[in-house]
Design goal:
alpha+beta, Arc Repressor Mutant, subunit A, about 45% helix
Length: about 80
Amino acid sequence: MSLEEMKKTNKCFLTPRDVASVIGCSPYSINIQAAKDASMLGFPICKMGTRVRIPRVAFIRWMEGIQTVSCSDDN
């Protein structure tokens, strides 16, 4: 999925697979880093159990250089 496609979709959350190609890494790397230290990703995430979801609007703002607050849950 491209950044432009992300802007056009109405999905609330993106998956690591959705954002991986935009930031140039593997979805697995996003999942591993989210488990180790989500703050090091640089963009906000929401963890639901072992699942990682990325708030679409917040990710787009992060990509465009607008500061956002992470909603990660380390429980």
